[in-house]
Design a protein that fits this description.
single chain; 385 residues; Growth Hormone, Chain: A; 14 helices; MFS_trans_sf; MFS_dom
């Protein structure tokens, strides 16, 4: 069956509410879960890292193993079933125990691994490159908007209710996901058996190295930043989520900029993002441990968070055909989850022995090395018309 061509407006009407619903609720899950298992279930740092890694591992399975192999109508069916499962999942976290938290986290990860790559692929269906990249930028802007809205709502909730009640208040977001999933279109796939060469594509390599320069930092902040703020500065749960909200505010503004002025040359934006990341890490790891410095660092680190992901998805959209993008996006999302598996697990062990600040200090030379590697591949992406 021939897929109808979607318009710019149609794409936005589906992508904006769906992306906000999925990402706001999922981010709440990822930031609240470490606090729940640490302070309600008395997990240590290594166990916090492992459960964060479990969620990322199951997302990797959903994206890299399940979704990347599905084609056509089967993928559409699995996508919609996953969205319906997600609609009923969040309220179950209110009843979570030290045992069931592992099961529910695994299910949530698999579902997310199926939902997110298909939303990215839908965002890239427009034929016109400039319109497509603008939609992709607006998609990432909706991600950032959800990451501002979500923590702000959560901060208000935690002023009046305990941690577990947050899952009930965010249930409408998961229900909206189940509804909006039925409006998502899928690309035509001819099914000729031709294998997509993903890993050797310079656009894919650029996307992966670029996301590595930031997601290593982001994975550590997501899993341990709230715990560090509470234990070091003795702030409330509400203040912890408010700090994350300020981080996502500058991320939102960065993506707003890309939506208004889409990036033509990716390299200059990437260099800027890595430079800001380095400054933010120095503020946390080198300067005295003051709440003011930590807050400024989060505001700065929100900028590369806003830039890095959209630059990666644009890199993929420029160098893959529409029928190839599901495989590319699924593999890319799986790689992001691998980062989320390895980083919290290793970081949990390292932080327990040398501390949060020193761990971040060791990240600085790693991202500088990655910047040097990027120069070899991004030039091919910037040549695409």
């Amino acid at each position: 069956m021939q897929r109808k061509e979607i318009t710019f407006i149609e794409a936005l009407l589906v992508i904006i509410p769906l992306t906000i619903a999925v990402r706001a609720s999922n981010n709440m899950l990822m930031t609240t879960l470490p606090l729940v298992v640490k302070y309600l279930f008395n997990f240590n740092e290594e166990e916090v890292g492992i459960i964060s890694a479990l969620t990322s591992l199951s997302t990797f399975i959903g994206s890299g193993i399940i979704n990347s192999r599905l084609r056509g109508d089967i993928r559409k069916i699995v996508f919609r079933i996953s969205a319906l499962i997600y609609a009923f999942l969040l309220p179950l976290f209110y009843l979570v125990s030290p045992i069931t938290v592992w099961i529910l986290s695994g299910i949530a990860g698999v579902v997310l691994g199926i939902l997110m790559p298909n939303i990215i692929t839908y965002a890239g269906l427009l034929k016109d490159r400039k319109q497509r990249e603008r939609v992709l930028s607006i998609y990432t802007l909706a991600l950032s908007a959800s990451l501002v809205i979500g923590p702000a709502i959560e901060s208000w909730i935690l002023d009046y209710f305990n941690l577990l009640f947050v899952f009930l208040f965010f249930a409408p977001f998961s229900i909206l996901t189940g509804i909006m999933a039925f409006f998502v279109e899928f690309p035509n796939e001819n099914g000729n058996g031709t294998k997509v060469k993903v890993l050797s594509n310079p656009g894919f390599i650029t996307a992966v190295i670029n996301i590595l320069t930031y997601n290593i930092v982001f994975s550590i902040l997501l899993a341990f930043g709230g715990i560090y703020a509470k234990s070091t500065f003795n702030v409330s749960y509400s203040t912890v989520t408010l700090l994350f909200s300020s981080f996502f505010l500058t991320s939102f503004l960065s993506r707003l900029y890309l939506s208004i002025r889409p990036a033509e040359k990716l390299y200059y934006h990437i260099v800027f993002a890595i430079s800001v990341t380095t400054v933010g890490l120095i503020l946390i790891s080198v300067l005295p441990p003051l709440l003011t410095f930590f807050t400024i660092a989060l505001l700065l680190l929100g900028i590369p968070h806003g830039l890095t992901y959209p630059l990666s998805v644009i890199s993929i959209s420029r160098t893959f055909k529409p029928e190839e993008r599901n495989a590319a996006n699924s593999t890319f999302f799986a790689v992001m989850m691998l980062i989320g598996i390895i980083t919290p697990t290793v970081a949990g062990f390292v932080i327990q022995h040398i501390g949060f600040r020193l761990t971040l200090a060791f990240i600085i030379p790693i991202i500088i090395i990655l910047l040097a590697l990027l120069g070899r591949y991004v030039k091919y992406v910037d040549k695409v018309e």
